[in-house]
Each structure stands twice: as C-alpha cells, then as structure tokens.
C-alpha cells in the first residue's frame, strides 16, 4: 500500500469548531434568527458536541445581546438540547424563540451524557460551550459577559455548578463569570438522602453520572453537589421547584437557596403548590407564570 499523502489527512477532517463557518440562519417570527446544530467542541472518542442558537432580530434592542446558556434535563442519561420540558413542547412560538424575541440570545447546548463520560465531563462541556460562544461573540452579536445559565432537572444541576464554578487559568478566551442562574427543579446534593434518593444506592442516575455509587466516591459526589460548592461570590440564583415533586425533592432547592443567602449571595426561591416534576399537575397559567418570572429574572440579571 502506498503511503497516505499528509495533505490528504489534513484535508479530510471538517474545520475545527473554533474556525468553522457558521451555518446560515433561518428567520422566524418577529425576525428571530435560528442556527441549528452548530458544532462547538470535539471531545475524544465521542460525537462532536453541538448547540442551537436563537438570536434576536437583527438591529433589535441593544447590541450585542446578552446570553442564556440552556442545559436540558433527562437524568444526565438522555434528553434533547432544545427541550425545556414537557409543558412547553407545544408552545408556539417555542420558549427559546420567546426568549430571543425578548432580546436575549439563547444557546441550547449538547453535553456528554452519563453513558458517554462520567462527571465532570458534562460540566466541562458547558464551560467549553461558553468559551466557544465567547470566541465567536463578535460574529454572533452576543455578549457572554452577560450570560445567565438556565436548566431544568439534571440541566438545572449543571447550570448551578456552572454558575458556582470559580475562574480557572488556561482557557483562551477565558470563560466569563456568569451573571445569574435559573434552576428549575434541579438536584443540588448528591451526598445525603433526600426523598427517594440514597447516596448508597447503586444503579441510580446519580451513580451513573459519577461513574460510581455516590457514597463510595464521596469527594466526587461533593464536587458534583451545588450545595457543597456555594461561595460568597456566587451570582444571583432563581430557584423554582414543584412543592409536590416526587423525583427531585423540593429540599434540594430550599437548602441551596438557604446556603446561598447564608454565604452572602442572592437567591430567590419559588415553590409551585401541587406541582410535580416537570410542572406535572400545574395549571397552564402557572407554567406560563413561572416562565415569565424566569425571563424577567434573566433580563434583570443582565441589565
């Protein structure tokens, strides 16, 4: 066999996400622009990671636009990056288009699931997405210095950790400090029994996330627990939880809010009476009100 031409090997791979051309944007109602499936990272031995972008109408509001970085739910095992939960799936326009119409860019981000890589891989991926958005900010017309993380369920857990992460040396451009976090019914503590969760239980989503039973890897469980990562420089949090949640006990949000306040930070807590996980059982107007309150928090945080 003849040796492979090095120029061929160099030409075969697609351009790296840091320099790849952006896809054309589709224009939706109200002039909102949407870019689907934009690669942002190429982790070893797994699929390329992509994000979807919703951008405000060209020339609307103040340029550059603040950013909502969204992390989906699914017990860290599954889920779609463009899904804000079961109660918003039939909204027209959809929730992310509504956020963009209100003047904020939205980046809905893939992250490695627990069957692909253990923690801290998904948090590393969110940080990589924020780095990529910062690198391409001028092209996109966004300001990642005004970013709010927003997540539901497992994504709320990751959004909390992203907001609580302290600056790390090394990335170019540096990952900016977040302006806030919106957390819908997210787990905050992988170290203690809560509701139906036990850190000694094998086969749980938490054990799959960590790559081991939480009680057997206490240092990693603590690192993966937003409640154990609270510090005085944390940005403002808006924590919303169903008071009747049977999957993630409301005490996760209650205790995280208390810890943030005790550390000197700002935390708003809202419990939705009668609502189970994913706002199951809540009235439609209650879901709409939670969404509206979350969007108002975002706009206040980035103003």
Automatic annotation (TrEMBL):
Keyword Hydrolase: yes
Annotated GO MF terms: hydrolase activity
Start and end residues of each BD-FAE-like domain: 51-260
Matching Pfam families: BD-FAE (PF20434)
UniProt keywords, alphabetically: Hydrolase
Domain of life, source organism: Bacteria
InterPro entries assigned to the protein according to its UniProt record, in alphabetical order: AB_hydrolase_fold, BD-FAE-like_dom, GDXG_lipolytic_enzyme
Matches recorded under SUPFAM superfamilies: alpha/beta-Hydrolases (SSF53474)
Keyword Hydrolase: yes
Entry protein name: Alpha/beta hydrolase
Lineage, highest ranks first: Bacteria, Bacillati, Actinomycetota, Actinomycetes, Kitasatosporales
């Amino acid at each position: 066999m003849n040796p492979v031409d090095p120029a061929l090997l160099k030409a075969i791979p697609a351009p790296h996400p840091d320099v790849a051309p952006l896809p054309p944007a589709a224009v939706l109602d109200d002039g909102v622009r949407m870019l689907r499936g934009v690669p942002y990272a190429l982790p070893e031995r797994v699929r390329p990671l992509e994000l979807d972008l919703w951008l405000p109408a060209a020339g609307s509001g103040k340029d550059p636009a603040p950013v909502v970085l969204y992390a989906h739910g699914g017990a860290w095992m599954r889920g779609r990056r463009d899904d804000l939960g079961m109660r918003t799936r039939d909204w027209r326009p959809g929730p992310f288009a509504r956020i963009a119409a209100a003047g904020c860019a939205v980046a809905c981000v893939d992250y490695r699931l627990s069957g692909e890589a253990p923690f801290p891989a998904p948090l590393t991926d969110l940080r990589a997405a924020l780095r990529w958005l910062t690198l391409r900010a001028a092209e996109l017309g966004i300001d990642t210095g005004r970013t709010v993380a927003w997540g539901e369920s497992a994504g709320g857990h990751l959004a909390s950790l992203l907001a609580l992460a302290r600056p790390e040396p090394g990335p170019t451009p540096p990952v900016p400090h977040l302006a806030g976090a919106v957390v819908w019914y997210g787990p905050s503590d992988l170290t203690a029994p809560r509701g139906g969760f036990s850190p000694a239980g094998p086969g749980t989503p938490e054990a799959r996330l960590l790559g081991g039973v939480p009680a057997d890897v206490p240092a990693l469980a603590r690192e993966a627990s937003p409640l154990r990562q609270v510090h005085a420089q944390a940005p403002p949090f808006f924590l919303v939880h169903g008071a009747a949640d049977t999957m993630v006990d409301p005490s996760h949000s209650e205790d995280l809010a208390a810890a943030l306040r005790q550390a000197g930070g700002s935390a708003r807590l809202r419990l939705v009476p009668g609502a189970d996980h994913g706002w199951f059982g809540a009235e439609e107007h209650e879901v709409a009100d939670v969404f509206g309150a979350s969007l108002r928090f975002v706009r206040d945080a980035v103003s």
